[in-house]
Each structure stands twice: as structure tokens, then as C-alpha cells.
Amino acid sequence: MVNPVTETPTSEHMAPEEEILSQEDIERGRLLFARDVDFMRSAVSLETLPPPDLPEVCFAGRSNVGKSSLINALTNRKGLARASNTPGRTRELNYFNVDGRLFLVDLPGFGYAKASKSDIARWQILTKAYLRGRAGLRRVFLLIDSRHGIKPSDIEVMEMLDEAAVTYQLVLTKTDKLKKGQLEKVYKATQKRIKKRPAAYPNVMKTSSEKKDGLDSLRAEIADLALPENLAKK
Ligand SMILES: Nc1nc2c(ncn2[C@@H]2O[C@H](COP(=O)(O)OP(=O)(O)OP(=O)(O)O)[C@@H](O)[C@H]2O)c(=O)[nH]1
Ligand SMILES: [Mg+2]
Hints:
CATH topology: Rossmann fold
Strand content: 15-25%
Bound molecules: guanosine-5'-triphosphate, magnesium ion
Structural class: alpha/beta
CATH architecture: 3-Layer(aba) Sandwich
Shape: globular
Number of strands: 7
Largest sheet: 7 strands, mixed
Helix content: 25-40%
Strand order of the largest sheet: 1-3-4-2-5-6-7
CATH class: Alpha Beta
Number of domains: 1
């Protein structure tokens, strides 16, 4: 239903998480991702990371949780980040430049991956060193598969980020795989588990790259961390 005066959708048709955002927040987030998003480089070592001259956010989480798919959904570009059915698809730190205002980083997954033990160990060392010590890293989006909830390897990452005082925000993924009631249960349980964690951002997000749910909320969060438009480096 559309309000005939403002021509905006009424709350009846809005996803619950969108109701708490102002239209202005939503527009700001949409605008950021409607602009240029360019693949910049793949880094296989800390030495090959770009200079930290823009604010940066990254997507971390277990293998196969949906990190690369979420980047593609957020940016509305299907093949920008390489997604795959095979856990362990992303093996480097992949940098994307969003409108000259922010770096978005797709990380290799942790936990189960179809790769050799030595390769996995190498990515884990690199990813952990990056998460702990990267200058300019404004927030880690830690993705959790909504079907599985928080796993011991996620807790390990959260403990590390708490210790390093790096802000992280939990994002439930693949919400299309759950019924509404199940999702609410997982959401509440997840929310409860981050309550006393010192570096955890208080709001857990819910997303589906498949159904494009929750993307405007996430875009708005990210837009808050980007450089203002008038300072964009082109
Ligand atoms: N149903 C559903 N499937 C999804 C969603 N997001 C991702 N997937 C599927 O989950 C699988 C893994 O997705 P990726 O985006 O490659 O996961 P990743 O976290 O980047 O994985 P690694 O790079 O291996 O760490 C793919 O088969 C995707 O199609 C979603 O929102 N809903
Ligand atoms: Mg990936």
C-alpha cells in the first residue's frame, strides 16, 4: 500500500528491520552502493594490502556462510565477488573500492574448507593478523549462517576482536532458509549472546542475499562508516 500524499510505502509493506531506519538513512545507503564499486586487488599477504587511506569494512565468517554472495547482493553486481558452493572459494583478501569513499573487503572463510591443511593454516594466519591489526578497519561484519547459529570458531573470532577492541557486528545470513518463527528464535538467541561482549555492536542484522532481504539496513550501516561524499577520492 502506498501513502497517497508522500508516495512512499506504508509500514504495512516494509520489512521489520527497515521500520527503524529513516527514509533518509535508506536512501544514503542505496546511493552509496548505486555508485561505482570496483574490484581493486587481491592480497595474499599483509605486505600486499593497499595503503589504509580509506575507511574499511570487511566480511568475515566461516566458509560457505555467504560472504561473497552478500557483497554481490549489496552492490547488485552478480559476479563481483566470486561465490561458490565449494567451501573455501575465497582464498585471498579481496578489496573493493566503493565510490572512492570506502574499502569493502571479502575475506577467506574460517572453519571447514575444501583445501589442503597448509593452505587453510596460511589463510587463517593472514586473516587473523589482518583482523587484529589493520589500520582503517572500522567494523568487521561477522556473518553467521542462520541455520547453524554461533559456532565455537565464531566465538574464537569474537574473543580475538574483543581483545583487540575492533568493533564487530553479527549478520545472520541465508534467512530465506528458515521459517519466520525459527528465524526469530535464532535472532533472539544470537542477540542475547553478544550482550556482554565488549566490542560487539549491539544490533544483530538479518539478511538473505537470495531474497534480497535486510540489504537496505546493512547498506545504511555501511554508509555511516564511509567518507562523506564531498571527500570522495576518485
Ligand atoms: N539460500 C541461500 N543461499 C545462499 C545465500 N547466500 C549464499 N548462499 C549460497 O551459499 C553458498 C556459499 O556462498 P558464498 O557467498 O560463496 O560463501 P562464502 O562465505 O563467500 O564462502 P568462502 O569464500 O568459501 O568462505 C553458495 O552456494 C551460495 O549460493 C542466501 O542468502 N540464501
Ligand atoms: Mg567467499
